[in-house]
């Protein structure tokens, strides 16, 4: 009998993790972007790669787009292309950080004309959402300043509110605005949405359809992220996750790679707060594959989330609550760690096979020859990258 | 003519910084508390020492008390004692971290009886506030856990809300509850009020008389504190400051000692947001004098705040706004730095003399012989310390 | 057949982790030290408690002493007491942070008389080492300053060298001096031995019998500790470990509690560099049990080290080296993680039983009734604490 | 009479700060590089821009080159070009991070052929040094890994030693090798030279002509950089500085912009240790001007260093030493801060004029019309950037 009870299996069967189209393009640091053979050259090829992840894992049924990187003439065609490959189009991400006009801000800019342009860009994104059937408009703002005195922090915050209000008003009834926060980078003195508190205050001022996006790499050193998960769920404002991992700053490594135990704690708190497989709380990846292969990097990532979810589901919550109530620190910790240290991989492999999936998706993909195929096929053209 | 205009002088004349009674007792680290001759042995002596700071600076007209450390039989007598020395009693600080019952929490404890005790302690504090005429009840909670799994983060947050609601309901019409947040310590895994967002969410749920207290040493490494100042002022929820400084964690050093430029930026943002000499935004010190003399340590601290306030008032805000509008990064930064680099000390010395104060309060206090006097007088008895 | 090969079992059988006598006394933060029933009142009782850890795990055959906390009249009697309980006396730790004379330094003090006193204290420690048969003199220095300008950084470093030279010269042929470094605390501006580089430079200047002690909690946020392990082993200067864990600063939590994967990486690097079960590289614990029971806290700790050692020994190093050579990032990481995710606990339980030990040492100790016994027996007297 | 004594003026007159050629090209983050009119298109134009900084400040007599970015056919011509503009060529910087072959390392690579290529690149740099008359070969290595297990930390360190030995052996008698360390980025798990200890251990193993380069932005959060300055000067191994500033990671902001007091402490420690205007300790800038104008950004930077040097020279070191000896914490800190808070800018303006320089170099450059001139002249061609 599996260590994964039927109830656990039922939860696992519901899990869905959205992939970012840009994870399949080249990415790197300010020092160098390394190219790899077979890198997609357009949104169609990115979606084809994303579909491979879903094919071997059944975990990644949707793909998020980034505008303008994934702008196409015919979104309906793109949608059909995705569906033909077994996936759907998901969240639409806006981009206000790669236009020269946005050097000193977009939604917060001193100049109303620049703000207009940035707001209109979000209107375009909402139009695309209608075409693609996407629910969420995700906004990450690169805005901020590099030097004390450079910017009027307060004025920018007020303008941010006004700009968001205009965008929010344009949302359809079933659409949401999800506002991401980030500690720093690319701005190095102040960032206009640097922490969950700011994101929360801004979306609370907008209304029910505005939520916070928590990117696991966007916090100050030492931040207890699962506490924020708990708090945002408690406040009813956790809209989505951008999963990745980091040792230092926003390293954008494979989720679970840097601190598996932190991922376990985060997923447990999602579960504890009713956020697991709750459509209001979207799970997404947001990573860079700078030195590793991209498609297997994404497969590894969704499997890491799945494995940690299985471990979190194994926590004996009744026993844990009893130990917590009695102040038995070591016993409560033991119960918690017991689930973390349980090796769920063999049971998950079996379970996958029982559902007609490969026991080892990484190996199955490697054996498929897909990487060699695209390396051969995708010669010529311009490789997509972060920013193209 | 002074570099301090009449308008600047008028602002400076209004400045008031509350002193913490516990700054005059011994303090230290978990490794050692060093004793010093002349350390106060009771609240009366602490207030006498605090009055010295005000005498030489005219900057510190009130003294905050800490209950139970400053519990006395007759608060009216203590009040008259203070007034006789030229100062008044200020904020009342509760303490739920030095009783064995609070090992696993106070306002958040799993056990209703412990929560009751902790809430009742706050009722006592409110009673004392009525006796002393204090406006603010300041709550810093040491609550949290050391090990993952030890505590139910969500349950504790909900219980915190309920406990605070009871305390809030007991406040008089002109009284306020001010909730402090802290990144970590004494809890080493999770803290129940770890960041401004949590404090804000909790006080917003209480009502208008509940505000956030910002302690400048209670943030994650790299946090942009002036941004939080801006945001809390914008949200109308910045109730008070605990000033101190730090290089690493909650070092509780003399304000301005570790990063004077940060103090400048904070005070500027207070000014920008309308919080300077605004009765709704209380300025307080919260420091430990582990290796330096305590009374001169406090004098140095209030002078540091005064000097930075003078510099912040010197910023040419019109020119700054123009440079910001035009995207002239270097010019905006120059205008900002120009005020910071201006040496306001000679002008402040002159201005002090014009008001009948010593030009150099540190020297005047040193010459007064007060330290030698209390060293001689205060022999025997038990020295007050952090925790007594 | 066990997943632990005979070679792995042979390594595990050799493992020895020294316990600190002070872990059995009360400890806490600057805010509060909570007392617990049954806390030892003298070195004899501390050793009795330490012997319990060894009894149930066979992992902790020695106990480190701290002078003056563990000063006794007759070290030979203490030695026999330990041996009677199945353990031996280990490292001697000096203490230069709890005497008023050391407020501004000990081995680095400006005043030669204070340095003399501190050096003489180390001579006393060496004398005790001769009495106890201890090999290592471990020096952790709390020295530093709180304010820029307070201290002459360079002069102190030079005096540190001179003081250490005198102490080093006094060592017996088979004795070693082990110098610990620490990022900060109790000093909050500068610490005289803040990093491995300083400790290394200082011990390298002394000679072959001087080594570095690496405390896993004594680094800046984000520091890659296993890299330092690698480097010190490479330089032949890793003398010992102080194991514990932390989320923030020097939290001194149970080893492996905060970041199990980091512990795995550290132990793997020890193994990779030839430091495992190498007498030159001593494994010790240095933790505080502030809220959890102390004896089971130590049992949990040595088991955590053992479990991680087993996992590190499971890494397929040949396959790993091949993947590294071929630049296969994901495969190398997979091989590494595979060992980490393997649940070694059932195999270790079996192996323990095969050696006449309890399968579950935590449960066996709990059932022994020892805690109730000492709570009943050790009434009256003064409980030992950090600093007594 | 100036507050700057003749002795201070004599020191200031000797100050020289090397400029990096790459500071005049475009730079940015991984998200976006903003272009600016007039950006140099080749090494000749970069040097012309650097000469402007020297012209208005007399502080920047040399320009560092980066190979291959500044590769030219005729280094003698470049040298004469520089001399014609009043400056000289300085340090040669190697680059092993922008070639696809170096994806998994250069001097540390598993493959001997890649190491050969990287070593040969350094031989080329040494050849260029002979042509340009440069003394220093500065090596910053981007090498490391992103995932635990990806790399053999120890093997890489050993190979690093071997590679450096080959390069070192090739140095001319009057040439030096300067090895920079960096906490993280572009590698996100381990970096092969992450800290001063590693750089020190590596250069100490090479010989007298190998030194450490300290980049002020390359440390873990909270690191006391002036302590490292002190230690490296004490060990005789501080070869050069890369000055810049940061709030978070390696932000590469204008030196002194983020924490002016830290810059003051660093310069003071240089002075205290005999490193000021000592030819063995080279002062250089290494910054990115992402949002501000580049030439005035460099002028601002060298002026910041000059102003802090003046302040550091104003410290009353005799009085400071006396206060330190007597344990008078507040007085020692006061003496130290007094120099920091002194406004040296008017005296420096006067002194500049007395030497035939503009009182306000920033204003003088702005009035010169140079920026408009190059914007008009440098149309067409490819703008130089970080990486070109």
Automatic annotation (TrEMBL), chains A, B, C, D:
Name assigned to this protein: L-rhamnose isomerase
Metal-binding recorded as keyword: yes
Keyword vocabulary terms for this entry: Isomerase, Manganese, Metal-binding
Enzyme class: isomerase
GO molecular function annotation: L-rhamnose isomerase activity; metal ion binding
Entries under PANTHER family matching the protein: L-RHAMNOSE ISOMERASE
Species: Agromyces agglutinans
Enzyme Commission number(s): 5.3.1.14
Keyword Glycoprotein (UniProt): no
A Gene Ontology BP annotation from the UniProt entry: L-lyxose metabolic process
